[in-house]
Fold:
Amino acid sequence: MKKLGFLASIITLLALNIALINDLVAKELTEVGAEINQEMWADLKSDLYDNREIKKTPNWLTMDAPYRAHDAALVPITIKANLPSGVQSTKKKFLRKLTLIIDNNPVPVAAKIELSPKLGPLHMETRIRVNQYSHVRAIVETNEGELFMVAKYVKAAGGCSAPAMKDIDATLASIGKMKLRQFTPKPEGELAAKQKQMSERIREIQVMVRHPNYSGMQMNQVTGYYIPAHFVDDMEIRLNDDPLIKLEGAISLSEDPMLRFRFLSNNEKQKVEFSVKDTKDQTFKKQWQLKPLMKAGS
Structure:
């Protein structure tokens, strides 16, 4: 019995040591990956912004992203710019551009988004693909040319090469179908009090288009051949015929591209138009009349 007890203790110690070693190795690999990622970002920054200064993580700019993604092909991110006064809350100074970058993706720039001042405080959500452990960056630019950045490290792999699980013929048959959802925005953070006062002016909607957004790296599970790249490269959302958002996309956006965002409204009767173009020059377009705010949903 004593021998069995001693053996059990040895096994327990070995298990603890193995667990400790695994934790240390995982930590070291993460640190090495983060260091390589920083080198990648230095090259990307030089290519995209030359020598322009990018101010890091201002307290008014935030990004929510999972530390470990449940699905690397559908990684949700939310970007908010909640400055009470200054950037984007006055007519003199506002955000005019948002760029989403995934450092280690085959095509790092996921989207370049032009923003209208009519959006008000930025509150935008979308879904991206992450092909390997990487920093995900949101860089905003003011109308005066200032650049600000916030970044999150996301653990995910295979998002751009994940096999197309849906039936390809059925997927292509439904391509271009569009949906709009309306929400009642909830005041939050430092702007909660101000948003409550402005609640009658803030709208929140989500637009989505059915599209496989094939990256060119996915394999047809039936034929064994790679599926040619076919993705959304242009999206535009107009409010009463005025541009609200223009997006230039690439393979790092998820399938069925989606944008959920808030904007300021002074009018109950408003029309939203959503237009999409893909790399095969297919164009899809749809208009909706927005519901009254009290009927918008939650």
